[in-house]
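User:
Can I borrow your eye for a moment on a structure tokenisation matter? Would you put together a sequence-and-structure record for a protein of your own picking? Please set it down just below, with no commentary around it:
AI:
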Amino acid sequence: MIIVTGASGQLGRMTVEKLLERMPAEQIGVSVRNPQKVLELQGKGVRVRQGDFNDSDSLAYAFEGATQVLIISADGFGEAIVQSHRTAIEAAKKAGANRIVYTSHMGSSPSSLFAPMKDHAATEDALQASGVPFVALRNGFYMASALMFLGDAISTGVLAAPEDGPVSWTTHTDLAEAAAIALSEQRFEGLTPGLTGTEAIDLTGVAAIASELSGRPIQRVFVSDDQYRDTLVSHGVPEAQANMLLGIFRASREGEFAHIDPTLTNLLHRSPLSVHDILKASIAAKM
């Protein structure tokens, strides 16, 4: 049985739906903190059990009978997140899983300027130390972040953010399909190449495409790192969270997310959704 954690979240839920296209529902189980959020999966025949990364006993129950476990990386950053991943890895091992798949990141590195990338690197180390065959899917950066930074720029005409660098943006949809393929066909071993889009675009490029699609001029305005952080904090964002978000810009300026690799394209047998595709759909939904 393939167990998918975090199935109430966007990536986890999409991955389960993609798996259901490839195998019988009785071969799929999910581990979620709140089973009430995924009752529709239970209605499709998927095994639903309560499991919490911070409760090893609950994971023992949720992972029972697992041959593979997909560990969707937890939200947040810092040592507590890494420890929760270690707990999940150990639970998968104790459950007898012969393969652990983890949603890592293309920028995974202990020296990254973006804090979550250090957590991914630490989790990859834990996977290697577990002794269980594993796959770390080094996913590209979610385009959802670019949409967040774009915000209401179409209506205001201004996209204000710190200096950034090119990013090979990807979508939850494409990465969920990649995860389903990796699980159902047992693709990859160890650390994968970056599962990226086919182009790397900075926010100036994002603004230009959005302007073209909307027919409204958007000016890319650069603000200082300090100004950006202070603005976030003034709007109620905790300082640690603000510094973490600022790290995206610092890391992208150093090219941490600019690499382009054909692995995702080859795996899907098609081109991943482009920035143009995603912006077109997003803008159409708002206009």
